[in-house]
Design goal:
Layout: H1 9-24, H2 33-37, H3 45-49, H4 63-73, H5 77-86, E1 101-104, E2 107-111, E3 116-122, E4 125-129, H6 135-148, E5 156-160, H7 166-169, H8 172-179, E6 182-185, H9 187-196, E7 206-207, E8 212-216, E9 219-225, E10 234-242, E11 245-252, H10 261-281, E12 283-288, H11 295-304, H12 317-339
Parallel strand pairs: 4-5, 5-6, 6-7, 11-12
Antiparallel strand pairs: 1-2, 2-3, 3-4, 8-9, 9-10, 10-11
Helix pairs in contact: 4-5, 4-12, 5-12, 10-12
Length: about 350
């Protein structure tokens, strides 16, 4: 069971201070979020609609895909942020770490700003999705963050890693050693860690099978292989609740696209397969482990909005499907760019995001 703890004045002060920092950057509720959160390299309107062109100055073959993504996004801040994030040359926004916040009654956002973890609270303990960047993050963000929302970090039973990059697994071994939590990752990304031997990598524990169901305290989380960002990226489908209302949430495990045509095609196939999973599960909530979806802005909106206001993470089925359609169109543009005769391969593999 999860035992409530009292919220301290220090926690409240931390919340106000972080909100002031977010507001100063223009990403608090009611601000103009996309212009503020979009990196400079992708801030011009043309970058989202046509990030590539031929040497003669005429539109590249990829432009129709990027234009379609922009049309699908329209004025939707969540979808516009996704277009920006997938525009070639974009950088991940560097944002201050917000205080922990419950996105739903049983789902907590624990964030370092540029990367986040999610804690699923159940009647029999906690399933943590990702573990931030380091043992220090586990001690400074995850553990006190859970206490701040009334949860006991000792109740962490499972740590599910979406993929094998250090900004997602960094605190996992610390939590496993301290609380006896089991660490889950796909076989392909356990193999990735075995090859690369990064610092703070967790010891190999449990393999995630494609479509596996992880049940704790009456809550069942589906774990689906969505390779592309890494060979074994996993995207969860999570049941969430708000009062008596129950919803299905998705978290795309790794957004930053790879560089080769083959890997990009694998990524696109994962998007298409996961859209079908989302349809079957009636997914209405979109989540991300990086600030590439207007997520931290929405978290601040949720934190400060009056009781009974609409939850900004509850997009509804058609809008979450449109989110994936935007991703599909942007990836088709990236594939077309990568197939161009003048395309240059990226020398270093992705190590984060």
């Amino acid at each position: 069971m999860i035992h409530p703890t009292r919220r301290t004045a220090t926690d409240a002060d931390f919340t106000r201070r972080r909100f002031a920092q977010l507001a100063a950057l223009g990403i608090a509720a009611g601000a103009a979020p996309i212009a503020a959160s979009a990196p400079a390299s992708a801030s011009a309107p043309a970058s989202a609609s046509a990030p590539a062109s031929t040497s003669a100055g005429t539109p590249s073959a990829s432009r129709p895909h990027y234009d379609r993504a922009r049309r699908l996004a329209g004025d939707d801040p969540v979808l516009r942020a996704l277009v920006t994030a997938l525009t070639p040359g974009s950088d991940l926004p560097q944002l201050p770490a917000p205080a922990p916040v419950k996105l739903f009654d049983n789902l907590v956002l624990l964030s370092a700003g540029w990367v986040s973890a999610m804690a699923v609270l159940t009647d029999d303990g906690i399933v943590l999705i990702d573990a931030l960047t380091s043992p220090a993050d586990a001690d400074a963000i995850i553990v006190p963050g859970l206490r701040a929302v009334g949860a006991d970090p000792a109740a962490i039973k499972h740590v599910v890693l979406t993929h094998g990059h250090s900004d997602h697994f960094g605190g996992a071994q610390t939590l496993a050693d301290r609380y006896g939590a089991r660490v889950h990752m796909s076989p392909a990304d356990w193999d990735l860690l075995a090859r690369t031997r990064p610092a703070d990598a967790p010891a190999r524990d449990l393999d995630i099978a494609d479509g596996e169901q992880l049940t704790l305290g009456g809550t069942t989380i589906e774990l689906h292989h969505t390779p592309g960002h890494t060979p074994g990226t996993v995207s969860p489908v999570i049941p969430v609740r708000a009062g008596r209302r129950h919803h299905s949430a998705m978290l795309w495990g790794g957004l930053n696209p790879p560089s080769t045509v083959e890997e990009l095609r694998t990524f696109l196939a994962s998007v298409q397969a996961f859209r079908a999973v989302m349809r079957r599960a009636n997914v209405e909530v979109e989540l991300s482990n990086h600030p590439n979806d207007h997520g931290l802005e929405r978290a601040e909106q949720l934190r400060h909005q009056p009781p009974g206001a609409a939850n900004p993470f509850l997009l509804g089925g058609p809008r979450t499907q449109r989110y994936m359609a935007v991703m599909d169109a942007m990836l088709r543009g990236r594939i077309t760019d990568a197939e161009a005769p003048t395309a240059r391969a990226v020398a270093a593999p992705l190590t984060c995001c």
